[in-house]
Design goal:
Elements: H1 11-18, H2 22-28, E1 34-35, H3 44-53, E2 61-66, E3 78-83, E4 88-92, E5 97-100, E6 103-106, H4 138-146, E7 154-157, H5 164-176, E8 181-184, H6 196-199, H7 205-223, H8 253-261, H9 276-286, E9 295-300, E10 303-308, E11 313-316, H10 325-332, E12 339-342, H11 351-363, E13 367-370
Parallel strand pairs: 7-8, 11-12, 12-13
Antiparallel strand pairs: 1-4, 2-3, 3-4, 5-6, 9-10, 10-11
Helix pairs in contact: 4-5, 5-7, 10-11
Length: 371
């Protein structure tokens, strides 16, 4: 580690002699440690040529001084070191490291966009969909995501395009058993009237995005059926829409506060044309639930319900059929039930039924929502 006489010892030897952990060795001796993970300098060929022209110099380590014409050392006398017959470029660890909160992090070159430039030539139909504008190589986005240590992260792409990002997330999960998730956002921009996509029945860029995610998931599962048995390649698609419930028109600060405290206590009916799925999504969002909650169907005592979280939440969203109190009691008796949602319109103005349901829910310690 002595810079002047080039007495070099291994990290392992320093650890053994001084009783240090590897990270401690790097932090203490950052200004004295050589490493060879640097890209080769343009000076290297001249050093090799000089050594060859002078009949070879018997040394395992070479030192040169020069004045760079550009870069951070421009105009300064700069020292470089080479090792072995292959003239591997040496650098001080401190020159290729960054200190954050007292911890030294070694930087490594992970490539540039130009490493993937050749792959942009055949991108038009990568992922099984045609998309000519702004498509990025799958391998490049996979590399970018792979540089992040968190295998459970959420990846958000506000300009999804053909959803290469979603494809890369699923591909990376298949390779390292990660649990990354993605949110893709894309306007329903019409595709070109002359495009192959339109001929295939795909009308918007958002449609292209959804199609690619579906095809990518199928391909990943088919390519490695043994290692991807537990891989989740499913997704849900949502569009921005107005509320399915009559909007609350607050007439005073008091009403505004009530609205903030009771988002579901709406005074008017649901949209007659709204589907149960649309109503449920809006209700769950208003209560802070995720768009990825487990949602299914349930049939209890002849009532068709929506089940959330394996039965923790049940919702009766049929505004056209009035249930009986006995049917509602059987719903409330569901073993895992924590919350029960029912549309206000389902009572058909029967305040007695509504009051009885509230009392039954309270006696069972089930939270009741009316919407």
């Amino acid at each position: 580690f002595e810079r002047r006489n080039f007495l070099i010892r291994s990290i392992a030897e320093v650890q053994r002699v001084e009783g240090l952990e590897e990270a401690e060795v790097y932090n203490i001796y950052a200004a004295k440690i050589f490493q060879t993970a640097m890209p080769q300098s343009s000076i290297r060929p001249r050093v090799m040529s000089f050594v060859a022209e002078n009949g070879g110099i018997e040394s395992d380590l070479y030192s040169i001084e020069y004045v760079p014409r550009s870069g951070r050392n421009k105009g300064l006398v700069y020292e470089q070191f080479y090792k072995g017959e292959n003239f591997r470029l040496f650098a001080w660890l401190r020159d290729v490291a960054e200190e954050r909160d007292g911890v030294l992090f070694k930087k490594e070159m992970r490539g540039t966009y130009w490493d993937y430039a050749s792959e942009t030539k055949n991108l038009t139909k990568e992922g099984g969909v045609e998309f000519k504008n702004g498509k990025k190589p799958l391998s490049m986005l996979r590399r970018i995501l792979g540089m992040q240590p968190d295998k459970d992260m959420m990846v958000l792409d506000f300009f999804a395009g053909s959803s290469t990002t979603a494809h890369a997330v699923m591909q990376l999960n298949a390779e390292d058993e990660g649990n990354r998730r993605f949110i893709m956002v894309q306007l329903p921009e019409p595709v070109s009237e002359h495009s192959e996509a339109l001929k295939a029945g795909v009308a918007t860029v958002a449609d292209i995005s959804r199609k690619r995610i579906k095809l990518a998931g199928e391909k990943i599962l088919a390519t490695s059926p043994i290692t991807t048995q537990s891989l989740d390649t499913g997704f849900r698609a949502y569009t921005l829409a107005d509320t399915n419930f009559t909007k609350w028109r607050a007439e005073s600060d008091v009403e505004t506060n009530v609205l903030e405290q009771h988002l579901l206590d709406l005074r008017d009916s649901a949209d007659d044309n709204a589907t149960p799925e649309s109503l449920l999504v809006e209700l769950l969002l208003k209560q802070g639930y995720s768009l990825t909650e487990e949602v299914g169907d349930a049939d209890i005592s002849g009532l068709r319900l929506k089940s959330v979280g394996g039965g923790l939440v049940l919702a009766y969203l049929d505004e056209h059929a009035k249930p009986t109190l006995q049917q509602l009691r059987e719903v409330l008796d569901s073993p895992d039930l924590v919350k029960f949602v029912i549309l206000e319109d389902a009572f058909k103005g029967d305040d007695e039924l509504k009051a009885n349901l509230a009392q039954e829910a309270k006696s069972r310690n089930v939270e009741l929502w009316t919407a």
